[in-house]
Write a structure and sequence with these properties.
Length: 184
Amino acid sequence: MPTSLNKGKLLIASPFLQDDNFKQTIILIVEHNEEGSVGFVLNKVLDFHLQEAVSGIILYDSPIYYGGPVGENSLFYIHRFPEISGAIPITDTLYWGGDFEEIKHLLNTSPPTTDSIRFFAGYAGWAEGQLDEELEDKSWIVQSISHAEVMKENLFNTLWQKRIRKMDEEYSYWANMPKDPTHN
């Protein structure tokens, strides 16, 4: 297993990645171990909001993001609330999952700012060794990210290009490539 990949890291899709689910995506890895890997796509917002998807949430609303092609009919979330029962640490200040009734109560009693919680339909998942193979094939580049940047809602349209531009000069041309490099 590559030592550079662990929870809290980003996967940046190569522009040559053939899977349409992951073209120009940035994925936050929330679990990576010998059994496989789980992550959420950070830069694909969907055309519906939390209040449309979940009944009983009145005081808070936010867009729902496409988290990945697995479990697209299920809602997942990353947040900054360590007090939520069952929340799984990604880093010292970032968590995923946890008791949804507690989340709903929090959203309805003291709504957090949009940089405190983000919701996803589906997730990206890899079986044992699958992601390691994709990394060896150079389908992904691993990067670190600040947790504040993970939660910035307004970056979804340009996050891939911005992260590419921060990389070594050898990758800078990627930022101007079309989603399908064969249509260049």
